[in-house]
Structures are given as structure tokens and as C-alpha cells.
Amino acid sequence: MLLLVNGCFFVSFFYLGIASLDPNSMDSTRRISVSVFVFALFSFLPFNAVARGGDRISFHSGAMNHSKGFLSRHLFQAKQPPLRQEITRGYMSNFELDKSIKEFGKRCANISYLYSIGESVQGFPLWVIEISDKPGQKEPEPSFKYIGNVHGDEPVGRELLMRLANWLCDNYMKDPLANLIVEKVHLHLLPSMNPDGFALRRRGNANNVDLNRDFPDQFFPINDVESMRQPETIAIMNWLKKEHFTASASLHGGALVANYPWDGSQDKRNKYYACPDDAAFQFMATLYSRSHHNMSLSKEFPEGITNGAFWYPIYGGMQDWNYIHGGCFEITLEISDIKWPKAKELDVLWEHNRMSMLNLIASLVKGGVHGRVFSGETGFPLPASVNLEGINYTVRASSIYGDYHRILAPRGSYKVIASMPGYKTKSTQVQIGDEGVNLDFILNPEESINKEARPKKGCECNCNCNCEGIGNTKLLQFFKRIHMELYIFAFLILLFLCFLFKRKSILKFSRHNRQYIGGKRSTVV
């Protein structure tokens, strides 16, 4: 490439020299020299950047005109020569993928559940495979999702996700890592987000829109008009409203690197732009890279990881939207240097990425902080907010079980804070080593202090249960007639029953927490 560039510069200056000697040939030779010079100049541009984002300068060229559409979202066919059909040979067609997914659902029905999150522009269902020991059910466990084939001309991800599903099915009850994932995580696999683009053998969907530019952006008002979003994008956004995902990764091609937020910067410059959980994201990206066959050996990307904005900024991406609006820690994985490698290379690519894909999922339960939040008054779960001191990001506990799962970089000390409107905030300090920590919170209502300070007349029970019946005049007259020792004994029994009633649900859920990390007992605050 360097010789080619030098040669182009030499030819351009050669023609300029001729033009200076012969005025009659000046116009034509100038045109030739300028053309060759421009070719040489563009030879320096990092075209491999289209792996994650496509046209890296499209946003800067005025992409915010609603009447003309967003240039950053649309692609130009002139820049995308169609792939030869022979290169697609050996990959599953959309119909073959559909068949493969359904056959997997029948073969591995004990640990899988199939569902569709919507349809593509051309009506192809966006199938998801859920893998768990209790598929289709809600549990107080972390959920992880893999999304493949975001860009139609990057099909390796859809093939690898089917291999991942089959590996887990074949190795469940045989391999400890497979057991951990199936029993402790709810794994969701979307093999193809862009089946239309795959069928057309191009990057964009059937409307020629880059789906990794179609999400609302945190810095600029692109894609804020809901009616302009693509059905595939809307399907992903609605999916995250229904499912409480802890972490995620999308699979791309054209480079070999693990990319993490932020993907863009407010001033649109190429620079490192860290999100609040930068340390946690670096941990996730590094875990994938080091588990990979050779990703961490990259000469272009130190340790095989990169901050998205530092690599090159993109806007309207799915990764940042997941973190901001979905409460989901998503990274972008470039898993093959070639976008559409020959099918005979898929087995090798699977072996190179297999442990990385498995370890990233397992990290959800091996590390971080996990637990539940309960009401100290009723014992019921609370959809509380969980924050860390010094990190401007909130993880919300689920409304069903009150469970939360917080990804953290290992070997650090963190102050964990649980809060809920109407309840007293609680916090505690935890030390994260190489293993995770189980931490439950019991929040007391703010008004409970006043209740304890001023108990109701005739109610000596200080246990937040309904004791109004004790104030009944006839009942009090009865107690006055019995011996003082019997009265005290009855009071203690009543107090004990109230205590059991309050703690029944908490103890029930806390026992399940031991399943998360090596059967460790949960710490209750």
C-alpha cells in the first residue's frame, strides 16, 4: 500500500511538471494529476473503520436535515459493490436459519424457549433463542443477550450464535461452564437483527438504512422522530422494555477488537470519551479479548480493546443507547478481520471466539454485586434504585423479585446505596475481589420511625403488624383479669408471630441468593 501511495504521488507530480512545460496540455494534465493525488490521499484513510460504523465522516457532512433524511443513517450503493454470490456459499440462508432455530427448539426444548421480537422490513421474523434451566420463566437471575448480523454483510455472528446455542445444549450436564450459564443466567440469542440486509448482501436493511445509526443519540437529536425508525430498531427498543437485561454484546466483522462506550463525543472529535462505568466496561472488553485466540495480541489496538470515540465516533449507535436507556452494559465485538470470510473458515472462527463468548456470559455471576431489595414492613420485593458512590449511573431492581445485578471491575472497594421513594436509604461498603458479592437490602418506610416512637393507644406490639384489635375494650378487660405472667407470655408470643410474618418472605428469597456465587451466604443490610 505504501508503494502504491508513493507511486501515485510521483505520477501526480510528473503530470504537473509536463503541464508547466506545455501550456496547451495544462488543463488535461492538471485533471489527471489531481485525480491521482486524491486517490493517493484517500489511500491513507482507515477503511477498516466501516466494521463498526460505516461512513465515519457522514455525520459531519450535515446529517441532521429532516427533509432530506439523515445521511448518517443511509448508505450509498456506489460505495458498496455487491458481493459475489459464490462468497456467500456455505452460509445459512434466512430460511435455513429459520429452520435451524426451530429444530434447535425441538431438540433442546428442556433448556430453550423460542420467541420473536418483531419483523424486518420484508416481514422476516426476528427470532430469539432463550437458554435457561427454566426457559420462558422469570427468575431473580441476570440476563444476557447476544445480537448478530446487525449489518447484513457481516454474517459471521449469526453462524457463531447458532454454534453457541448448540454447544450449550450438547454440553449441559457435562461441562461446568455450560452448567453455570444454563442454571444461573437467562441467555437470549438473536442470531440475525438484519435478515433483509443479509439476503441483499449489503450493510443496510431493506430500506438501505444502517441499523447501527438508527437509535436515539445522547449528544444530537438524530433519530428522535419515532416514525422514521426502522422496524428492526423499534423491535430492539421494545425488547428492552420487556426484558431486564444486565449485559449484552453485538457481533460485527471487519476488524478484531472489543469496543466499549462511549461511541461518540459531544465535540465530534476522535478522543477517549469515558462513560461513568469505564472501568467495568474495560473489564468486560479485556475479558473477551484475553479469552480470544489472538485478539489481545493486536498491534493496532492495545490489549485488543478500544474506546469507541477514540477509535472513531459514531452517532445513533445501539451500544450507547443500551447503556443509557436500557440499563444494559453492552459492548461491540469485532470478531473477524474480514467481513464475509469463506464459509470454510467458520469452524476456526468459532474456536477462536468460543471461550470468549462463554466467559463473557459467565462473568455476570462470577463477579460484581448481586442481591435483592425488600420492604422491612411487608417483606415484599421493591423495585429500588441501586447506586455506587462516585459513579453516576443507576441500576434498578426488578419489580417482580426486587433483584439487581451490578457489573463491577474486580479488586476494588465500593459503597453500594439502595434507595426507594417513601423508604429510608441504606448503604454499605463492599470489597470486590476476583469473585462477586451477594448483598441484600431491607428498606424501612420513612413513616415507620414515627410509628415506633408513638405507638397506637392500646397497642403494645412494636412490629408493624395490625394490632388495632388489641385496643378493643372487651379484650383489654379480659387481659386485666388474667395473671400478669400469662399476660407477658401472650405478649411475647404475639411479638414473635409478628416477627415471623415480617421475615417470612425475606428469608425465603435470601436462601435463593446462595445459588449465585458458589453458594455463598448473602449479606443483609
From TrEMBL:
Alphabetical list of Gene3D superfamilies matching this protein: Carboxypeptidase-like, regulatory domain, Zn peptidases
One Gene Ontology term from the biological process aspect of the record: protein processing
GO molecular function: metallocarboxypeptidase activity; zinc ion binding
InterPro entries on file: CarboxyPept-like_regulatory, CARBOXYPEPT_ZN_1, CARBOXYPEPT_ZN_2, Peptidase_M14, Peptidase_M14_domain
UniProt name for this protein: Peptidase M14 domain-containing protein
Transmembrane segments: 482-501
Family: Belongs to the peptidase M14 family.
Organism per entry: Rhynchospora breviuscula
Keywords in alphabetical order: Carboxypeptidase, Glycoprotein, Hydrolase, Membrane, Metal-binding, Protease, Transmembrane, Transmembrane helix, Zinc
Superkingdom in the source lineage: Eukaryota
GO cellular component: extracellular space
Cofactor(s) needed for function: Zn(2+)
